[in-house]
Amino acid sequence: MATFERDDISISYDTHGDGFPVLLIAPGGMRSAAAVWHNMPLNPIEQLSPSYRVVAMDQRNAGSSAAPITADDGWATYTTDQLALLDHLGIDQFHVVGMCIGGSYIAALIKAAPERVRSAVVMQTIGVDENRNAFYEMFDSWAADIKGDHPEVDEATWASFRSNMYDAEPFLFTAGDADVAAMATPLLLLMGNDLYHPESSSRRWAELSPNATLIEEWKEEPARGEAIAAMDAFLASNTP
Protein backbone atom coordinates (compact mmCIF):
# COMPACT_ATOMS: atom_id res chain seq x y z
CA MET A 1 0.00 0.00 0.00
CA ALA A 2 1.00 3.62 -0.51
CA THR A 3 1.34 5.92 2.50
CA PHE A 4 0.15 9.49 3.01
CA GLU A 5 2.00 11.27 5.81
CA ARG A 6 0.45 14.28 7.50
CA ASP A 7 2.08 15.64 10.64
CA ASP A 8 2.42 12.54 12.85
CA ILE A 9 -0.36 10.65 11.05
CA SER A 10 0.27 7.87 8.53
CA ILE A 11 -2.63 6.82 6.30
CA SER A 12 -2.24 3.72 4.12
CA TYR A 13 -4.22 3.44 0.91
CA ASP A 14 -4.34 1.73 -2.47
CA THR A 15 -5.63 3.06 -5.78
CA HIS A 16 -7.15 0.83 -8.45
CA GLY A 17 -8.18 1.65 -12.00
CA ASP A 18 -8.76 4.94 -13.79
CA GLY A 19 -11.70 7.26 -14.24
CA PHE A 20 -13.86 9.37 -11.96
CA PRO A 21 -12.71 8.92 -8.33
CA VAL A 22 -14.52 6.69 -5.84
CA LEU A 23 -13.49 6.75 -2.17
CA LEU A 24 -14.08 3.45 -0.36
CA ILE A 25 -14.71 3.35 3.38
CA ALA A 26 -14.47 -0.24 4.54
CA PRO A 27 -16.54 -2.07 7.16
CA GLY A 28 -15.02 -3.35 10.38
CA GLY A 29 -15.98 -0.72 12.93
CA MET A 30 -12.85 0.84 14.44
CA ARG A 31 -10.88 -1.74 12.41
CA SER A 32 -12.05 -0.27 9.09
CA ALA A 33 -9.33 -1.29 6.63
CA ALA A 34 -9.28 -1.87 2.88
CA ALA A 35 -8.46 -5.58 3.18
CA VAL A 36 -11.81 -6.21 4.90
CA TRP A 37 -13.58 -5.66 1.56
CA HIS A 38 -12.31 -8.99 0.28
CA ASN A 39 -14.49 -10.84 2.81
CA MET A 40 -17.70 -8.98 2.00
CA PRO A 41 -20.66 -10.15 -0.13
CA LEU A 42 -20.11 -7.14 -2.40
CA ASN A 43 -16.54 -5.98 -3.00
CA PRO A 44 -16.45 -2.55 -4.67
CA ILE A 45 -12.71 -2.83 -5.34
CA GLU A 46 -13.43 -5.64 -7.78
CA GLN A 47 -16.70 -4.23 -9.05
CA LEU A 48 -15.68 -0.62 -9.66
CA SER A 49 -11.97 -0.56 -10.54
CA PRO A 50 -12.60 -1.43 -14.22
CA SER A 51 -14.50 1.87 -14.64
CA TYR A 52 -13.35 4.22 -11.86
CA ARG A 53 -10.30 5.40 -9.96
CA VAL A 54 -10.95 3.58 -6.71
CA VAL A 55 -9.23 4.81 -3.53
CA ALA A 56 -9.34 2.20 -0.75
CA MET A 57 -7.97 3.46 2.57
CA ASP A 58 -7.21 2.13 6.02
CA GLN A 59 -8.68 4.45 8.65
CA ARG A 60 -6.28 5.71 11.31
CA ASN A 61 -5.11 3.01 13.72
CA ALA A 62 -6.65 0.31 11.54
CA GLY A 63 -4.86 -1.91 9.06
CA SER A 64 -1.52 -0.28 8.30
CA SER A 65 -2.52 3.29 9.22
CA ALA A 66 -1.30 4.87 12.44
CA ALA A 67 -1.95 8.05 14.40
CA PRO A 68 -1.75 9.37 17.95
CA ILE A 69 -4.73 8.94 20.28
CA THR A 70 -6.12 12.09 21.92
CA ALA A 71 -9.08 12.93 24.11
CA ASP A 72 -10.49 15.10 21.32
CA ASP A 73 -10.56 12.31 18.72
CA GLY A 74 -13.97 11.59 17.23
CA TRP A 75 -15.89 11.39 13.97
CA ALA A 76 -14.57 14.72 12.72
CA THR A 77 -11.01 13.44 13.12
CA TYR A 78 -11.69 10.71 10.56
CA THR A 79 -13.49 13.08 8.20
CA THR A 80 -10.42 15.30 8.24
CA ASP A 81 -8.20 12.30 7.36
CA GLN A 82 -10.46 11.28 4.49
CA LEU A 83 -10.61 14.73 2.92
CA ALA A 84 -6.89 15.29 3.47
CA LEU A 85 -6.10 12.05 1.61
CA LEU A 86 -8.29 13.12 -1.31
CA ASP A 87 -6.61 16.53 -1.35
CA HIS A 88 -3.23 14.80 -1.38
CA LEU A 89 -4.33 12.80 -4.42
CA GLY A 90 -5.58 15.91 -6.20
CA ILE A 91 -9.20 14.78 -6.03
CA ASP A 92 -11.92 17.42 -5.73
CA GLN A 93 -15.26 15.75 -6.46
CA PHE A 94 -15.79 12.05 -5.86
CA HIS A 95 -18.28 9.27 -5.27
CA VAL A 96 -18.06 7.50 -1.93
CA VAL A 97 -18.95 3.88 -1.20
CA GLY A 98 -19.01 2.63 2.37
CA MET A 99 -20.25 -0.22 4.48
CA CYS A 100 -21.04 -0.58 8.19
CA ILE A 101 -19.25 2.30 9.97
CA GLY A 102 -18.79 3.70 6.47
CA GLY A 103 -22.40 4.88 6.62
CA SER A 104 -21.71 7.24 9.50
CA TYR A 105 -18.46 8.39 7.91
CA ILE A 106 -20.32 9.10 4.66
CA ALA A 107 -22.97 11.14 6.47
CA ALA A 108 -20.17 13.16 8.08
CA LEU A 109 -18.47 13.71 4.71
CA ILE A 110 -21.71 14.93 3.14
CA LYS A 111 -22.24 17.34 6.04
CA ALA A 112 -18.65 18.61 5.88
CA ALA A 113 -18.22 18.87 2.10
CA PRO A 114 -21.53 18.41 0.25
CA GLU A 115 -20.18 20.12 -2.84
CA ARG A 116 -17.48 17.46 -3.21
CA VAL A 117 -19.59 14.30 -2.81
CA ARG A 118 -21.25 13.56 -6.16
CA SER A 119 -23.11 10.52 -4.84
CA ALA A 120 -22.88 7.86 -2.13
CA VAL A 121 -23.56 4.15 -1.89
CA VAL A 122 -24.13 3.00 1.69
CA MET A 123 -24.24 -0.70 2.57
CA GLN A 124 -25.85 -1.66 5.91
CA THR A 125 -25.08 1.52 7.82
CA ILE A 126 -24.55 1.35 11.54
CA GLY A 127 -27.05 3.25 13.67
CA VAL A 128 -28.52 3.68 17.12
CA ASP A 129 -31.44 1.42 18.01
CA GLU A 130 -31.18 0.07 21.57
CA ASN A 131 -27.69 -1.23 20.75
CA ARG A 132 -25.32 1.37 22.18
CA ASN A 133 -23.60 -1.11 24.50
CA ALA A 134 -22.60 -3.19 21.48
CA PHE A 135 -20.67 -0.21 20.11
CA TYR A 136 -19.00 0.43 23.47
CA GLU A 137 -17.89 -3.21 23.56
CA MET A 138 -16.62 -3.05 19.97
CA PHE A 139 -14.61 0.08 20.74
CA ASP A 140 -13.17 -1.43 23.92
CA SER A 141 -12.09 -4.58 22.07
CA TRP A 142 -10.30 -2.52 19.42
CA ALA A 143 -8.70 -0.28 22.04
CA ALA A 144 -7.43 -3.28 23.99
CA ASP A 145 -5.73 -4.57 20.85
CA ILE A 146 -3.76 -1.39 20.22
CA LYS A 147 -3.09 -0.03 23.71
CA GLY A 148 0.36 -1.59 23.60
CA ASP A 149 1.19 0.73 20.70
CA HIS A 150 0.06 3.76 22.71
CA PRO A 151 1.50 3.43 26.24
CA GLU A 152 1.34 7.19 26.67
CA VAL A 153 -2.47 7.23 26.52
CA ASP A 154 -4.28 7.07 29.86
CA GLU A 155 -7.70 5.58 30.52
CA ALA A 156 -9.38 8.98 30.71
CA THR A 157 -8.25 9.72 27.16
CA TRP A 158 -9.57 6.40 25.86
CA ALA A 159 -12.87 7.04 27.64
CA SER A 160 -13.18 10.52 26.12
CA PHE A 161 -12.47 9.15 22.64
CA ARG A 162 -15.10 6.43 23.04
CA SER A 163 -17.63 8.95 24.29
CA ASN A 164 -16.98 11.25 21.33
CA MET A 165 -17.70 8.37 18.98
CA TYR A 166 -20.57 6.45 20.54
CA ASP A 167 -22.34 8.66 23.08
CA ALA A 168 -23.62 10.75 20.18
CA GLU A 169 -27.41 11.03 20.09
CA PRO A 170 -28.13 11.27 16.31
CA PHE A 171 -29.38 7.98 14.89
CA LEU A 172 -26.38 7.74 12.55
CA PHE A 173 -24.03 9.03 15.29
CA THR A 174 -22.81 11.73 12.87
CA ALA A 175 -26.19 12.83 11.52
CA GLY A 176 -29.73 13.11 12.83
CA ASP A 177 -33.13 13.68 11.27
CA ALA A 178 -32.60 17.31 10.25
CA ASP A 179 -29.13 16.60 8.83
CA VAL A 180 -30.37 13.66 6.77
CA ALA A 181 -33.43 15.55 5.52
CA ALA A 182 -31.12 18.31 4.25
CA MET A 183 -28.93 15.93 2.22
CA ALA A 184 -29.46 16.63 -1.47
CA THR A 185 -26.66 14.22 -2.40
CA PRO A 186 -27.91 11.22 -4.42
CA LEU A 187 -27.88 8.15 -2.17
CA LEU A 188 -28.19 4.43 -2.82
CA LEU A 189 -28.83 2.65 0.48
CA LEU A 190 -28.49 -1.12 0.87
CA MET A 191 -30.39 -2.10 3.99
CA GLY A 192 -28.90 -3.58 7.16
CA ASN A 193 -30.68 -6.07 9.37
CA ASP A 194 -28.66 -6.92 12.48
CA LEU A 195 -27.47 -5.57 15.85
CA TYR A 196 -24.84 -3.16 14.55
CA HIS A 197 -26.67 -2.38 11.30
CA PRO A 198 -30.34 -2.07 12.29
CA GLU A 199 -32.95 -2.06 9.57
CA SER A 200 -34.47 1.00 11.21
CA SER A 201 -31.41 3.15 10.44
CA SER A 202 -31.39 2.33 6.73
CA ARG A 203 -35.15 2.87 6.45
CA ARG A 204 -35.08 6.14 8.38
CA TRP A 205 -32.27 7.52 6.22
CA ALA A 206 -34.12 6.52 3.06
CA GLU A 207 -37.40 8.01 4.24
CA LEU A 208 -35.89 11.33 5.30
CA SER A 209 -33.42 12.03 2.50
CA PRO A 210 -34.97 13.69 -0.56
CA ASN A 211 -32.73 11.90 -3.08
CA ALA A 212 -32.34 8.38 -1.69
CA THR A 213 -33.16 4.91 -3.01
CA LEU A 214 -33.37 1.90 -0.69
CA ILE A 215 -32.54 -1.68 -1.70
CA GLU A 216 -33.79 -4.15 0.89
CA GLU A 217 -32.32 -7.44 -0.36
CA TRP A 218 -28.76 -7.55 -1.72
CA LYS A 219 -26.51 -10.14 -0.04
CA GLU A 220 -27.62 -13.36 -1.75
CA GLU A 221 -28.19 -14.24 -5.39
CA PRO A 222 -30.11 -13.23 -7.43
CA ALA A 223 -30.55 -10.06 -5.33
CA ARG A 224 -26.78 -9.57 -5.12
CA GLY A 225 -26.41 -9.41 -8.90
CA GLU A 226 -29.34 -7.02 -9.13
CA ALA A 227 -27.82 -4.78 -6.44
CA ILE A 228 -24.49 -4.68 -8.27
CA ALA A 229 -26.28 -3.68 -11.47
CA ALA A 230 -28.19 -0.99 -9.57
CA MET A 231 -24.96 0.36 -8.07
CA ASP A 232 -23.29 0.46 -11.47
CA ALA A 233 -26.23 2.32 -13.01
CA PHE A 234 -26.50 4.69 -10.03
CA LEU A 235 -22.84 5.70 -10.09
CA ALA A 236 -22.81 6.05 -13.88
CA SER A 237 -25.86 8.32 -13.78
CA ASN A 238 -24.15 10.60 -11.24
CA THR A 239 -20.73 10.71 -12.88
CA PRO A 240 -20.00 14.04 -14.57
Describe the structure concisely for a colleague:
The chain has 240 residues and is of the alpha/beta class. Helices cover 37% and strands 18% of the residues.
Which runs of at least 5 residues are low in confidence (pLDDT < 50)? none
SSE-based structural type:
alpha/beta
What's the number of helices? 8
| Number of strand elements | 8
Instruction: Report how far apart the termini are.
Output: 28 Å
Strand order of the largest sheet: 1-2-4-3-5-6-7-8
Could you describe the 3D structure shown?
It contains 8 helices and 8 strands. The chain has helices spanning 44-48, 75-88, 101-112, 132-146, 155-166, 177-181, 199-208, 223-237; strands spanning 2-6, 9-16, 21-25, 53-57, 94-99, 117-123, 187-190, 212-215. The chain has an 8-stranded mixed β-sheet with strand order 1-2-4-3-5-6-7-8, sandwiched between helices. β5, α3 (101-112) and β6 (117-123) form a beta-alpha-beta unit. The longest helix has 15 residues, at 132-146. The protein is globular, with a radius of gyration of 17 Å.
Topology, please?
Elements: E1 2-6, E2 9-16, E3 21-25, H1 44-48, E4 53-57, H2 75-88, E5 94-99, H3 101-112, E6 117-123, H4 132-146, H5 155-166, H6 177-181, E7 187-190, H7 199-208, E8 212-215, H8 223-237
Parallel strand pairs: 3-4, 3-5, 5-6, 6-7, 7-8
Antiparallel strand pairs: 1-2, 2-4
Helix pairs in contact: 2-3
